[in-house]
């Protein structure tokens, strides 16, 4: 009989055998996938594993704090915590093209990760939270390029000549969440909506600047607060704000305004390969809209994205 418990036991045995006395590194992102990977591998090989968390300055407010606190306070996981905000914003300076953004962020990540791994020395394996749908979507189709340059650690194994350990390769997200519960991870982290590696960088259409990040972050906090308050946060696959690269005319008091537009995206999905836009109650949308327009300076219009995947993707870039 296949249970989460036996899955963990089997994997722990297999990882121990494969790794022997070698060293493993793992990129912790704050999300459920990498957290589950870290927890399983830590259970197998203890402090032969080092996890590295890179703050790329493109995270949501408070995104990774609860899981970091858990690992620091409740486990003996070796954890290196790097703040690379300035570096990443520098890399993105003047960049507008979505694929160039993804590549710059991915390469930046590899550079920092490589430096840190170099300091550890003698690393042989890289652990990754690749899921089954990632395996499918990253495969090129009839020689064409994959849909998007996903996966922030894409080029890392080749560059560093590391062998991969991917214990979640055959699982879907809901199964990974069950695993997380079995491993005792905090519920907040387990039920966190997926968040892309390139972070808010691909939710700002056009150039990523500190000012635009600030507008998006404030809007995003409101979306999540209202989704949670209404009891909808766990009902949807993802719900978030996107900053558009246009300004529109509005009116405030007697004056004309000319400000940014925020798009709200919320989708239902099991595996992110297909998705449908969420039929959110108008009250929630109304509350999100009026709060963003009233509370976030520089935004005078909010729209709701009603496209499904395919043909639209979940993220806008
Ligand atoms: P798309 O936009 O391709 O997204 O429909 C499918 C799912 O993947 C997430 N996503 C990413 N996750 N690195 C990640 O770790 C990435 O580069 C990346 N791009 C998209 C997205 O949030 C959605 O859940």
Automatic annotation (TrEMBL):
One of its GO terms (molecular function) is ATP binding. It comes from the Bacteria. Its EC number is 6.3.5.2. Residues 2-192 form the GMPS ATP-PPase domain. The keyword rRNA-binding does not apply. GO terms for cellular component: cytosol. Homodimer. This is GMP synthase [glutamine-hydrolyzing].
């Amino acid at each position: 009989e296949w249970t989460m418990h036996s899955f963990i036991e089997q994997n722990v045995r297999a990882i121990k055998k494969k790794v022997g006395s070698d060293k493993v590194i793992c990129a912790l992102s704050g999300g459920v996938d990498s957290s589950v990977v870290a927890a399983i591998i830590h259970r197998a090989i203890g402090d032969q594993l080092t996890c590295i968390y890179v703050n790329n300055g493109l995270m949501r407010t408070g995104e990774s704090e609860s899981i970091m606190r858990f690992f620091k306070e409740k486990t003996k996981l070796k954890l290196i915590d790097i703040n690379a905000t300035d570096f990443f914003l520098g890399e993105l300076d003047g960049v507008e093209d979505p694929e160039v953004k993804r590549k710059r962020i991915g390469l930046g990540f590899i550079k920092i990760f490589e430096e840190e791994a170099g300091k550890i020395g003698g690393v042989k394996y890289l652990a990754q939270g690749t899921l089954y749908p990632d395996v499918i979507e990253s495969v090129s189709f009839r020689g064409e390029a994959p849909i998007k340059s996903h996966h922030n650690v894409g080029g890392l194994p080749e560059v560093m000549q590391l062998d991969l350990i991917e214990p979640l390769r055959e699982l879907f997200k809901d199964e990974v969440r069950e695993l997380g519960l079995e491993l005792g991870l905090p519920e907040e982290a387990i039920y966190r909506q997926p968040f892309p590696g390139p972070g808010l960088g691909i939710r700002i259409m056009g150039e990523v600047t500190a000012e635009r990040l600030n507008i998006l972050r404030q809007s995003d906090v409101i979306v999540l607060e209202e989704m949670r308050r209404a009891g909808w946060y766990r009902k949807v696959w993802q719900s978030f704000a996107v900053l558009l690269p246009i300004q529109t005319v509005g009116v405030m008091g007697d004056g004309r305004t000319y400000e940014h537009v925020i798009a709200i995206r919320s989708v239902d999905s099991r595996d992110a390969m297909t998705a449908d836009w969420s039929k959110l109650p108008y009250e929630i949308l109304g509350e999100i809209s009026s709060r963003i327009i009233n509370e976030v300076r520089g935004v005078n219009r909010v729209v709701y994205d009603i496209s499904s995947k395919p043909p639209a993707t979940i993220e806008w870039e």
